[in-house]
Amino acid sequence: MSLNHNYYNPIFSHIYVEESVYEKPNVQEIISMFGNATVIPIRHYKDVFNKSSQNSLIQKEAINLILAAKPDNFIYPGAKVCQSFDNPHFYYASSVMNCIFDCEYCYLKGFYPSSNVVIFVNEEDLFNEVSDILAKHSAYISISYDTDLIPFEPITHHIRHWMEYVDKNENLTIEIRTKSANGKILKEISKGIEHLERVIIAFSMSPKGLAEAYEQRTPSLMARIECAMVVKEVGYPIRIAFDPMLYDANYKEHYQGLIKTVDRYLDLKSLKDVSVGSFRIPKDYLKRMRKRNPSSVIAQFPYTLEDGVYHYDNELINEMENMMVNELKKYIPEDRIYMWRET
Ligand code: SF4
């Protein structure tokens, strides 16, 4: 599998490694891929990640990497701002913290004190936790949650390991949410996997202008669509997440145009499903985002606060989401359109 070192080296110029995991073969493999990086042993990842007086905005310009072991809690029940897609046992996994992309609206900016990336390298403990859950009931797990996992796949092989695990556990379905355009790697790691039907690739798509304005360092809309075309051809079920929908004065034309474009290339009715959700974010995260980035148009918008969650006012939400659903119904049956809340 090829790895574009040049893509990573400018980002991960320093790699902090917990002493307890330093000798692990997967840690040594990752270190060996960044020949120019300075490797610094540390006692605990929080000594670096949770340091006081960090500026996560500046850090985003030169992200460093932390390799650590997570003692427990890899798997969490789905949060209330997330969609469960009718799955009774909906979870998300946290095996990587932070993302190499830089979406202005990303809740991670208000969630973590740092923009550095932490990769938890004790996968075996994660899969033990999943096994405990599956011993009780089936599960649907969103695995690319506090991150976008696909850009890390060349160095972690983590998605491939999840897919092998899915293959062996018929009561498990996973979702990989992404803005990546790396269809090549998803094609590569699908080889030999028998149950791709339980590995859902969910592409987040935003109108071109909004993506360019607020989704920095992400692949363009067309690159994501082309990636989805490749991945669909391979046989993965495809979900398109029109989520988060962002308001601007011309949002109707933007989102109607987006639906048309996605349908032209991907034929919406042939996809597994789509999801719709306007921007919403837990109160404390937005509070921190406003403080950390006073010039952010997204963070400073005058949202409505309800039950600990900031969102657009209810009239606007209904207008935006109903417009989107009504438009999507022209292309895909309504029972395959999911919303993050009932209207
Ligand atoms: S791709 Fe997802 S996880 Fe990454 S910055 Fe954007 S919203 Fe956040």
Number of strands: 18
Biggest pleated sheet: 8 strands, mixed
Order of strands in the sheet with the most strands?
4-5-9-10-11-13-14-18
Given the helix and strand composition, which structural class is it? alpha/beta
Strand content: 15-25%
Per the principal axes of the C-alpha atoms, what is the gross shape? globular
List the uncertain runs. 1-9
- Which ligands, by name, code or SMILES, are bound? iron/sulfur cluster
* Mean pLDDT figure: 93
Number of helices: 15
Distance linking N and C termini: 46 Å
Radius of gyration: 20 Å
Helix coverage percent of residues?
25-40%
Please describe what this structure looks like.
Helix 2 links the parallel strand 1 and strand 2. About 35% of the residues lie in helices and about 20% in strands. Mean pLDDT is about 95; it is low at about 1-10. The longest helix has 16 residues, at about 250-265. The chain is globular, with a radius of gyration of 20 Å. The protein has an eight-stranded mixed β-sheet with strand order 4-5-9-10-11-13-14-18. By secondary structure, the protein is of the alpha/beta class. The chain has helices at about 5-10, 25-30, 45-50, 55-60, 110, 125-135, 155, 160-170, 185-190, 210-215, 220-235, 250-265, 285-290, 295-300, 315-330, and strands at about 15-20, 40, 65-70, 75, 90-95, 95, 100-105, 115-120, 140, 170-180, 200-205, 215, 240-245, 275-280, 280, 305, 310, 335-340. The N and C termini lie far apart (about 45 Å). Iron/sulfur cluster binds near residues 99, 106, 147 and 148. Iron/sulfur cluster (SF4) binds near residues 101 and 103.
